[in-house]
Amino acid sequence: MTTITVYLLLSLALLLLLYLIRQAYPRPYPGIPYLAPSARRLWGDLPHILPVISLTQDPAKYVYSLCRQLNSPVIQLFLRPFSAPIIFVDDVREVKDILGMRTMEFDRAPSTQAVFAPFLPHASIAKRTTPEWRAQRRLWEGVMGRDFLRRVAAPRMLGCARELCELLRVKAEIAGGRPFYVFEDFDLAAFDVIWTVIFGRNLEALVTERKGILEHREDVVLPGSKDELAVFPTLRRPEIYEAVAWFVKGVEKTLRSLSQPWHHWVLRQMPAYRAKWAMKERLVSGLIHDTRSKLADLADDQLDTFEDTCAMDMALRRERLAYDGKFDARPPTTREIHDELFMFLVAGHETKAVTLSWTVKFLTNNRAAQTKLREDLLLSLPNGVNSTTEEIMNTPIPYLEATMEEAVRLGNIHPRLVRIATVDTQILGYPIPKGANVVFSSYVAEKPVDIPEEQRSKRSQQTKVNFRKHYDDDMEDFIPERWLNEKGEFDSHQYPTLAFSAGPRVCYGRALARQELRITLTLLILSFRFEPVPEKYNSMGAHQRILRVPQQCYVRLTPLDHAKI
Fold this sequence. Notes:
By secondary structure, this protein is of the alpha+beta class.
């Protein structure tokens, strides 16, 4: 090899290296504000974000502050080398309009699909908003409707809430005034309910858990100090619950990984993954087969009048009607039914458990609100903890509604809603290029950046009057009263909300979550006084799983004798 050839190869290698280095650095989109020093760093905004994550486990804190620093509701962030910027939008009015009315411009982002597709490739959560997606969603209309939720879900919710209270009563008695971890109890309760609602079988996980705690009470760690944690032994839980919990943790790790497809591939090679996945496949497929066999014995007229006892009944009955041309949707594939049922199981129990956890934390730290809620419940429900589902669901209890709405708002369980721009477009006058990943904030607590009305879309301007207010100086405080009008009635239009997203991709289980929260919270508040928890166990920080989950979820319970309240 001649000297000239060597120099030429070295020069080419150097040019390639310089090109790769240049490609690794941030390349800002024109016309969108950003932090100038971040654009000159290989790691972009990460040096600013990582300390915030270390302190709060919540990167959104940095992003909200950056919007105010740049005085713009639309900014761009540089989060990793060799990647396009992420556009962040923090303006509730415009976000509601985009999610609800501009679905042809913004659709499900590939990054979201990458998280769920390996677990749920045929579920609607992993698909773009296409006619196929709409047809698939149509099959499940009514599963989260009022009739189904009241007739099928509510009785099981009430029974499960009572079983949860019995479990917590046992734990409180053993703990003897010490705080203890409660998130897994809420999670197990939510799973118990959703399993029955979806598959029509009783899991009885809470009953088994309570019996296990009583059998192993000598294994409970009880420190000398009442301000230290009572630690209960970890018991064996239903195999399907353990599998779903394992998959949810896998999603959490995937969200934090640099390469989601690579992380999923590694995950799928693990023996634990394969074993749990195979068990899930056998169980769900077997339940689908059994229900199809049950429905196959019904005549056509019987099928029309068949009363569904679970979500699977409804889906498989409609499947048969669709094949007979009697249901306005294309017949679903078996994998679509399988994955959609499993999606309901995963997302449904997670939503309720996380929402209940935040609600309990807010009420623990706001004794006046907790006392007010208990007093109103006792006045409205004379039968107390023995109230029926009809009494709990049909009795107007404005402060209960206000408490739930405030907890959902402040809990911010869906903090970021991710979409991809499908065309060149604009948001609030800022140019958004086709293919850009856009993260929409759902948090309704930060003071909005002032925007001239003429920069907003016409629909955003027109819908401003739909809400009484859009911001108050105390929006970061837990104040249920903000949702009550002058007459003391609950008013959901006091402020805008985005806790369950909006538009055609609004959270499908929101009605289920709200109904279960209403029933469970009612029984918990009537059954226990949630005492203050030591500061070191009372962090309001969060970490991101599928949803935004409290870092710490501990309670110190005083069981209530209702004759003495």
